């Protein structure tokens, strides 16, 4: 049976499209976009929090998440859900990812 850690590791291969646009690719795990992961009998549900309620990239991210997780053994079904009420804050990012973005965005747009 697949573990949550294995799912999380596979999700590290999915970059946040907006981070790519800034020239500093950051995966969705390090961005702090993963709110929850549930694994039940070969079905994986990933719940995301978005950096903005107006995110236009959810379709692309969902597709990439599905592709990444279906490569794992014993994964028969993938569901991606978005918690539109969850608030994302820059502090949710991995500290190393924050530092990479801080070098690109020196005007304090990333939490310190």
From TrEMBL:
Coiled coil: none
Residues in the signal sequence: none
Entry-linked SUPFAM superfamilies: Fe-S cluster assembly (FSCA) domain-like
Superkingdom as given in the UniProt entry: Bacteria
Pfam family, one: FeS_assembly_P
MIP18 family-like domain segment(s): 5-82
Listed name of the protein: Metal-sulfur cluster biosynthetic enzyme
